[in-house]
Amino acid sequence: MKIGQDKLKKDEKLVLELREVFESYGFSRFKMSKFEEYVFYLENKNFLKTEQIITFTDRGGRLLALKPDITLSIAKTFGGKAGETEKVYYIENVYRYLKHTDEYRETEQMGLEVMGAVDTYSELEVILLAMKSLELIDKNYVLDISHIGLTMGLFESLGIEDGRAREALQNCISQKNGHDIEAAAPGISAAALDAIRKVIALPGDIGEALAVLEGLSSGNGMSQAISELKSLWNALKTTKYARRAKLDLSISGDVNYYNGIIFRGYVEKIPVSVLSGGRYDLLIQKFKKEGGAVGFALNLDDLALYYPRAAADENEVYLVYGEDADAGAVAEKAAALVKEGYIVKAQRTPPKNADAKTIEFRGRD
Amino acid sequence: MFSIALPKGRLADKTSKLLFNLGYIGETPADNRKLVFCDAERGVRYFLVKPSDVAIYVEYGVADIGVVGKDVLVEERPDVYELLDLKFGKCRMCVAAAEGYKPDMSRPVKVATKFVNTALAYFESVNRESEIIKLNGSVELAPLLGISDVIVDLVETGTTLKENNLKIIAEIMKVSARLIANKSAYKFKTREIDALAAALSVAVSAEK
């Protein structure tokens, strides 16, 4: 049976399209079990974005957890074959605590990971697939790219050592707040103030933005980050995706997790970022495996809300059959209507709030 | 087209006057009692909401940008861009206590406030254990009635404190109105939002 694409919700359609894209680049599907042992998350809690995990005891007395994260399980399973590159993708539900509503929520994620021998090509491939994914959601999209070493390297270059000042300045950069820098780091030098303001207002073009950063860099950490971004940009700038990528230091990532490029994707109709990812060799090394890893996750939850499908309800009908109608005859009538292209809701009593056409059926036509 | 969330009250009057002078809107809320304005000609829609809700409207993308007090941003920590200090609606977040209050360092200080997170963070930063009591209004009464030792509240002129026999014992931060933007909206309307922020910046500097 052929399924009409217009019958699918945005997230369902996207999943089908992305499976094809991911598989054509050699990614294979990884299906994980719903539960992991809680101790696994406890041992790796530095790599988790949440500390609130739903746990329960199984019959044998083991403490299990509903998975709050996929990447951790993938990193445990794959990678570590010397010189080899492994590519997997997943479509899974995760269970996370939401601060806003103060409750747990099940959210659906789709994502991919490249593990093992990872280089600039791997990063480029993942970034291109991330941009392709965003483009499939909405033609109007942006991918913000940064590097985890940039802000730390910048603070080093500027001689800002104090932990509290670094955190406050990091917040200013994340919020594009150029007016509270002096309050965040009292006594900051005029040169440092100017440098941080420049970082907040980087030009849109990545090449130009990198030139600005080069002018500010004097430390090793920052030059390393800039040179990694440069190699990536040199490869990316010749593709059709180039003008939708921006260098933006307001995106930040956990330094326990990421150790290289990080990125975040936005589409026009969704008010929060829908995609995030980056280079995370530290996690692979935590599992005593060689090599690195790069990947991203896409949040499928909000898609249907912000991209509702075109009203397919126009051809909906209620098929209201009488008490003594023959069940077989009703089925035949329903099948005939479906064949004509109707969406048929057969029920015995007339609907209270009829939002569609009603056909009364008393027996055989 | 972009939409702006404004807090009801003085900040809205001030902001809409600025937007009117800059030609972004054709009428101000003072001309009208409506809560939602749509100016199709200029491509701007704006609406008036409770001050503490502005950041929520912006974070959820119902409004692309908004004007909100720094006190709300510090207290609620919404995930938004804070683009500009508008330099009006100025006041201070303070710790105040009854005249003659002597801190008892042998027990946690009892604090009555509307700004729970702000108060917690402040007392943590000065290494003082605190017990926070959340009140929704008339916070000045708390020390007088003996619910708390001190209060954390916004102080504009200090008249209310004086009338209730309270005095400022510490200033936590200076507060003023800020222009905030939804992170996603900013990506797709960068030029428009930056232009508005730049125009507002010039206008508020000129007023000083």
Q: What can you tell me about this protein's structure?
A:
The complex is a heterodimer of chains A (365) and B (208). Chain A is of the alpha/beta class and 365 residues long. Chain A has 3 domains: 1-117 and 280-310, 2-Layer Sandwich (BirA Bifunctional Protein, domain 2); 139-274, Bira Bifunctional Protein, Domain 2 (BirA Bifunctional Protein, domain 2, 2-Layer Sandwich); 316-361, no CATH class. Chain A is 37% helix and 24% strand. Chain A is built from 13 helices and 14 strands. In chain A, helix 5 (148-157) runs antiparallel to helix 10 (220-236). Chain A is elongated, with a radius of gyration of 26 Å. The model of chain A has no long low-confidence stretch (mean pLDDT 88). With 208 residues, chain B is α/β, with parallel strands linked by helices. In chain B, 33% of the residues lie in helices and 31% in strands. Chain B has a 6-stranded mixed β-sheet. In chain B, strands 8-7-9-6-10 form a 5-stranded mixed β-sheet. In chain B, strand 7 (109-113), helix 4 and strand 8 (130-134) form a beta-alpha-beta unit. Chain B starts with a strand and ends with a helix. The interface between A and B is medium-sized, with 19 and 20 residues.
Describe how the helices and strands are arranged.
The complex is a heterodimer of chains A (365) and B (208).
Chain A: H1 10-24, E1 28-29, E2 35-37, H2 38-43, E3 55-57, E4 63-66, H3 71-77, E5 85-98, E6 103-116, H4 120-137, E7 141-147, H5 148-157, H6 163-174, H7 181-184, H8 190-200, H9 206-216, H10 220-236, E8 245-247, E9 261-267, E10 275-279, H11 281-286, E11 292-299, H12 303-306, E12 316-321, H13 327-339, E13 343-347, E14 357-361
Parallel strand pairs in A: 1-5, 7-8, 12-13, 12-14
Antiparallel strand pairs in A: 2-4, 3-4, 5-6, 6-11, 7-9, 9-10, 10-11
Helix pairs in contact in A: 1-4, 4-10, 5-10, 6-8, 9-10
Chain B: E1 2-7, H1 10-21, E2 36-39, E3 44-49, H2 54-59, E4 65-69, H3 70-76, E5 81-85, E6 91-98, E7 109-113, H4 116-125, E8 130-134, H5 141-145, E9 150-155, H6 159-163, E10 166-175, E11 177-181, H7 183-188, H8 190-207
Parallel strand pairs in B: 1-3, 1-4, 7-8, 7-9
Antiparallel strand pairs in B: 2-3, 4-11, 5-11, 6-9, 6-10
